[in-house]
Amino acid sequence: xxxxxxxxxxxxxxxxxxxxxxxxxxxxxxxxxxxxxxxxxxxxxxxxxxxxxxxxxxxxxxxxxxxxxxxxxxxxxxxxxxxxxxxxxxxxxxxxxxxxxxxxxxxxxxxxxxxxxxxxxxxxxxxxxxxxxxxxxxxxxxxxxxxxxxxxxxxxxxxxxxxxxxxxxxxxxxxxxxxxxxxxxxxxxxxxxxxxxxxxx
Length: 201
Ligand SMILES: [Zn+2]
Known about the structure:
- There is one protein chain.
- It contains nine helices and two strands.
- It has helices at residues 3-14, 17-20, 25-37, 57-70, 74-92, 133-142, 144-149, 152-171, 175-183; strands at residues 112-114, 119-121.
- Strands 1-2 form a two-stranded antiparallel ribbon.
- The structure holds zinc ion (ZN).
- Zinc ion binds next to loops.
């Protein structure tokens, strides 16, 4: 799934905060947005392994959530929503496609690395690949609850994120050709630093 879908999923869950603690809604949404993106910062360094923890984020998110219930404030709410969105992201990646350059070919058996059992979880492909039409649709649906509770600046951010998702989905299948073309310009001394999936055929 696209990083934007993960951000929107986190924000969708965080919009529940508006029901219990409306004054914390903005900080909850902002933290969940960042937390939903966070695991994909490992894109160039062990993607879906280094910052993806489909098991380990959850207990920390629950502990932070308990703390936020006992002591509700911007810091505890932000920490909870950040961890919850990162946990959701890591788990959701199991239901997307694999790690290959052209994930619609469905050749990869790697969805996300599970540090708990020490192996890769295989992709279920409920959303066939990142940037698939159903991925953009999912993101748009997830944007509805937060759009109902967000203030103006966050509403713009959420709207822009949906637009970005749709735009990426429209060009997604052209991305590998562009990537391969760009990799040709990488000096041979540097090619060992190019992630393997960017050079595979
Ligand atoms: Zn991811």
